[in-house]
Amino acid sequence: MFRKMNAFQQAGIVLFKTPWSRKGLTRVTIILLSVCVFVGGCATYKPQPLPVTADLVTPPRLTANIDRFACASLKPYPFDAQNGLDMTEIAILAALNNPDLMALRQKAGVARAQLFAARLLPDPQVTVRLDYPTVKRADLFTAYEYGLNYDLNYFVTRRVSIEEAAAAAAKVDLEILWQEWQVIQKARTLFVHAKFEEDMLNVLKQIQRLYANRYARSSKALREGNLTLDVTGTDLTAKIDSDTQVNDMEQVLNKTRHELNALVGISPDAKIRLVHPAAAPCILDERELKQAVRDMVERRPDLLALRAGYESQEAKVHKAVLNQFPALNVGIKMSSDTSDVHTTGHETVLTLPFFNRNRGKIAVEKATRQQLRQEYQARIAQAYGQADLIWTRQRLLIKQLHQLQRYLPTLEKMVEKARRAYADQNIAPITYINMENTLANKRLKAIHLMQGLWETAIALDALLARHGITVTH
């Protein structure tokens, strides 16, 4: 008869076939609880203090594992900081070294942990109950109840829970990728700012030298009595204005350089030699723009992230609908009363969906799904409008630049002749100064237009999720 019983019943008879003392029951209870704790393979806790110093690097070098960011659709790009950094190398350095991106990538670990948790089976529940008689009599025994319960409702929603967590993890990965795109765009933009601000500073310094020489001559002539005060005062004012312009541009360039260093994760005092872009960006024609806008929906990481978030929300709606059905919890138990009558049996707990039926949760999840749908639609519409705005600005910049470049060589030749005439004192100083100033301003305008052309190309490249900027000479 003993052999025909199951293991649970055999254990119960062995443990409880004789009256138990309070001390014996307490010992068994402690043993059972200890088993429940240790069989689970508990994780251990290790504190991780926050850092007290910045993790910036002094020389421009890669500190991230490039293999983690490998992309089959992109060709390898040689990275050599010894020869200076071009726009692509700055973008690579920013994507791998940016401190904010390093912190943001940790979110992916959280999302994957949530996906891992969604795949885990729920733990069973063990119940232990002991009742001690308050009256000591020979015919009274310590009552007990031991049970093992399991929640079966998990298996109803397991598939949609995993789908929800998987879509949420994909959303986080795509959001990180979009932030990487934004950092790359900003790094390229700062690169363009730094290089063209250097060009502007060089032109402004030429004007500064011109007015400094002019003021030196006029002040000498004033001391010799060969020039009036009003002319010298005008020259001094022009010199001070040119000094102010140079100082302002130096401040702007210093700010740009520090922003670029911070973005690529190197120390503020590190000096990076930037290689000037050798060509102008290639501009899309109208047909290419329309095709790129159509393809954008399948390429842009933020739109794909919104789509993944919508899929995750769809799974939440499905899960909420499934949770309206009765929740089932089953278990087995063994018990004994104070008269030493032993029993075994099973237990079923069923939630009856009479009043709530999870209708509130379903309504919330459906409303959230509709909100995400509208956000996705609005983001697409916004991208369409921004693409047309940037592309139109590009066309205007090209038109203005071509107009300026058409007459700039002629102006340069005229100024060169005026420079020789001024040296021979065959032209009025004010006329020569005005011509030099006009040439410098037009060169500044050309630099500004070319900078704007690069900025719009970079912005459109990020907006349309294109792989890179092509160049044209």
TrEMBL record:
Superkingdom of source: Bacteria
Family per record: Belongs to the outer membrane factor (OMF) (TC 1.B.17) family.
Bilayer-crossing regions: none
UniProt xrefs under Pfam families: OEP
Example GO molecular function: efflux transmembrane transporter activity
SUPFAM superfamilies documented for this protein: Outer membrane efflux proteins (OEP)
Protein name: TolC family protein
InterPro entries, alphabetized: MdtP/NodT-like, OMP_efflux
Naturally occurring in which organism (per UniProt): Desulfomonile tiedjei
